[in-house]
Amino acid sequence: MVYYLIVCRSLTYAQRTASALERAGITARVLRSPKVIAGEGCSHSVRVAERSLARALLVLERVGLSPKRIYIVSGGGDYQEVRL
Amino acid sequence: MIYLDSAATTLQKPPAVARAMAQAVNRLASPGRGGHAPAMAAAETAFRCRQAAAELFQVENPEQVVFTSSATHGLNIAIHSLLRPGDAVVISGYEHNAVTRPLHALGAEVRVAEAPLFDRAAQLEAFAQKLDGDVRAVVCTHVSNVFGFVLPVEGIAALCRERDIPFVLDASQSAGCLPVRMGELGAAFIAMPGHKGLYGPQGTGLLLCGGPAEPLLQGGTGSASALQEMPAFLPDRLEAGTHNMPGIAGLLEGIRFVRTQGTERILAHERRLLRPAGEALEGIPGVTVFQAEDPAAQAGVLSFRVEGVDCEAAGEALGAQGIAVRAGLHCAPLAHRSAGTLESGAVRISVSAFNTPRELHRMVQAVARLAGHRK
Questions:
Q1: CATH number of the domain enclosing A58
Q2: Candidates A15, A16, A42; nearest CB to B223
């Protein structure tokens, strides 16, 4: 299954992000970022379905939350950064 | 036991506080330390607590809500973030040692905005006079822990905003019973304990951050772990080490209780208890009561002296009758100096949402007996 990971600067920021998305009806789950995309060490990401990313970005822009980075995760488990 | 020492610690808590703490011991791990269910459950509880506090105190976002071990801890962070040795700082004459000792240890130049007890207009004017171009910060209590004096912090904060001086509020006695609004005050920091008016357990506190902050402790945060510097972002920057999850779970329930009751209702209840008690105490020969003429100038706390009876002996005698009060200097010698009670000390009664008029009536009766037996 293909999905997106929105990498956040902190756990609390990830929780705010997930909370904003959930309020907008977008299923979002906080998880620890995979090591290869974590950047400066441990971080947290928000997982959203492939079909939800565009709407998620609109919601986040509206509430003033900026993702640090976004990755698309393929069915094979590869991570590719998404250029916005 | 009639417990009248809530300015130190509220002893009676909503039952949900203890339940949440017991569950946390068994079910919650540590936020940010692992992706497993107990760690994520802890993260969820911590976030809900930050959110609840942010909504109660009108903080823009939950990241600005930092968990501390006490108001003292938060005040130390605030003071060390804003001031360097030799910097000028203005405080009121009603500050607790939680403010004055860190300032003394730092070597700050402390200027006291002196004003008579319960004179809010004079207090505001005293701050206005002291705020010149040298001042690097203002630290002020919202409510005196000795006399319940409600300082005009909205006006003091406005003076600071006009002069671009960082304002630090010690909300130790006001959080949970008076409006504390981060956004309106424009404060640099607001520090508060969890175990008083927020009805959480001891060992908890909150620091609301309006700007950059420097950590007192360095260590693991579960974030940006490859770096040796503390993370630049809140709340992680100020939260090194494992969180007190049972405490945070209990604090969340305490805050929920306050939000359900409403701070206005709690304040009105406390004033309905203390005002008549103060008037009754004033009617006892030999008892001096520190009660404001204007009810709005006092909240939650009332102090008195009994002529010819040492304040500690009075506290001891009341304790022996099952009435818990606090006597002495209340860790606030500056406040006692300002009110002229530094030599004698005072007996303090302080109430919570759980006290009843009958309890206050019994306290008054006990003081009357004590005053009647004085030498």
A1: 3.30.70.1530
A2: A42
